[in-house]
Amino acid sequence: MLEVDPQKTGEAVDRYLKHDFERYLRLSGKHRTDISSPSMNGMPSGSPGNAQEAKIIEGTYAGQVVNAIVATIQNCSDFDYRKPYKQILVDYYIRGLQNFKIAQKIGYSDRQFDFKKRMAQCEFADRFEYWKIVYHVQDQPCLQIMQRAKNCAKFAD
Residues 84, 106: contact at Cβ < 8 Å? Predict the structure, then answer.
């Protein structure tokens, strides 16, 4: 069975949330402050209807991508102190806090925080696959990067 490469998956998620997410926010007319509120319910919104202008359709699609990203973050683990993944993702990618400030806030050393952040990114990648379907944005990239086989068995004759 293939396993996710945590380092490469974390890097893919980081690139996606730093660059693509920012672009979709702009295209949808939304701002990070619009989504940093815990009041976002994570439910899909309606379809674009009879919109004829490409910009409106593009903006609507971008809004669906933003909604999928926000729903994914909101759905990440945050049920106990061992898995503060949602808090890490919100604080870093939505609120823009620095790593050391988040680490202090949740009471982790830098090394512990780096591990927890990587696990939060991996959980985001896993959960994003579901939310892409819910929001009809399946053309968004798969952020899960699989490990290469380390040991290839050789067959003896």
Answer: yes
